[in-house]
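Task: sequence design from structure.
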């Protein structure tokens, strides 16, 4: 980064699609960590996202160079659900080799990603980075293994969160014009454990079921008609109300049963 305190990236290569302007009035509440599942430069991930409806705010290359692809003020499409996307900064970290090598990441990329997490937390007043609180992982929000080794339990998680916390303290001291050392406030270590908060679960449920809840509403409307008032094209019941799809199916079943009985009777004779 050119400037950690102002979040000025090394490079800016903005997406021209596959993101949403603004954040729908929401504030940044956390970062969401990803790995590329690929060995990609800033230009290459930009190219990938031209053909896939996806994006993130930052790409951390294996050499530690950080690119901005979506402005922080806009919504990147990285967490698979709008609720989380509108409230987070998406950080992608390149791998340095493929699946046969186990998706490794360079120490440099882990360090710079950790520092970026710290800088984002400081800039948006999110507090010291805490895994599972203001530092979240793609796999929390959808069915994916991403960010794999960077996630809790993964071999890089402790290094990532450790550097994020160390650098946060350093950067905060710099911002406040003090030095780390005897004046630095001691904060507890061990941030790699996931802190389970009520918010964690709320976000998880909303993130996981958000799209499905919308889909259920659609299904309900299809079954019951707009506002549950039935569909005029299905006919009316004896009270003169529009039939719902459920009513119509029930009526059809009745008709079919009648018909079957008549056919059975004919056959019996
Ligand atoms: Zn991801």
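Answer:
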């Amino acid at each position: 980064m050119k400037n950690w305190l102002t979040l000025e990236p090394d490079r800016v290569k903005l997406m021209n699609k596959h993101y949403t302007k603004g954040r729908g009035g929401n504030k940044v509440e956390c970062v969401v960590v990803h790995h590329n599942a690929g060995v990609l430069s800033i230009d290459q991930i930009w190219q990938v996202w031209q053909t896939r409806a996806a994006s993130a705010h930052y790409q951390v290359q294996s050499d530690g160079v950080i690119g901005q692809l979506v402005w922080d003020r806009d919504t990147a499409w990285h967490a698979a659900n709008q609720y989380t996307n509108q409230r987070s900064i998406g950080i992608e970290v390149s791998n340095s080799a493929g699946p046969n090598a186990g998706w490794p990441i360079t120490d440099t990329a882990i360090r710079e990603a950790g520092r970026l997490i710290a800088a984002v937390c400081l800039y948006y007043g999110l507090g010291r980075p805490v895994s599972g609180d203001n530092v979240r992982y793609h796999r929390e929000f959808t069915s994916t293994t991403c960010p794999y080794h960077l996630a809790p339990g993964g071999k890089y998680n402790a290094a990532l969160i450790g550097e994020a916390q160390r650098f946060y303290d350093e950067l905060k001291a710099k911002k406040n014009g003090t030095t780390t050392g005897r004046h630095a406030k001691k904060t507890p270590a061990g941030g790699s454990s996931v802190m389970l908060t009520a918010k964690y679960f709320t976000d998880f449920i909303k993130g996981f079921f958000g799209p499905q809840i919308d889909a259920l509403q659609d299904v309900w409307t299809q079954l019951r008609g707009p506002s549950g008032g039935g569909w005029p094209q299905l006919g009316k019941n004896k009270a003169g109300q529009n039939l719902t799809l459920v009513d119509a199916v029930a009526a059809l079943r009745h008709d079919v049963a009648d018909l079957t009985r008549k056919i059975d009777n004919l056959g019996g004779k």
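The chain has six helices and ten strands.
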